[in-house]
Amino acid sequence: VDDYKEVCMGLDPNNPDTDGDRVSDGNELLYELNALEPDGDRIITLQREAEIGTDLKLKIDMEAAAANAESFSLYTIPSAGIISSERIQGMIGNGISFTMDGTFQSVSVELVISENKIDSALSYGLYYVNTEKLRFERVSKQKIYGNHIYADLEHFSDYVILTDELIADATKSLRDIFRTVGNTVDELTAERTDTDRDGIPD
Description:
alpha+beta, five-stranded antiparallel β-sheet, 5 helices, 10 strands, 18% helix, 33% strand
């Protein structure tokens, strides 16, 4: 929002969050909130679409408090990174990292896998990367139709698509990686720190 429009609306052009509710004035207008009254706890619906590397397309629908949604970001885990299809057996495409301060009401995702990555004789699923227990956990609420995965997420973290039949091999790959690089989550995630929260790793 340019300064002239902000002044006309009674907003402070020198303050990105006039009402101090942790939602920027621009996003309050986008979310159809009142930028002059604190309403950052109001539940909004946020929709995003993204290409995850060259093999996946993502759509996300989220309901969360506006102030929490303000901090939402997602990014592609680099294929040269630790969690990659080159290192994890049975992994398809790039992993996805979701982050947000606070909690959400609900999150639904649709993932479309490139047809050339699908083997009709195998089954696939969306898995959470559990770095504390060193294993992959299949998202419990998901449906797969051809090359489409529809899932409801319970929390934000790192997710990957794995071939179900190769889950034991994928888990072994993950544990071998930790033995090689160290046993701390910090070492695993250091290469994709996003300190300015712009969705692009530092």
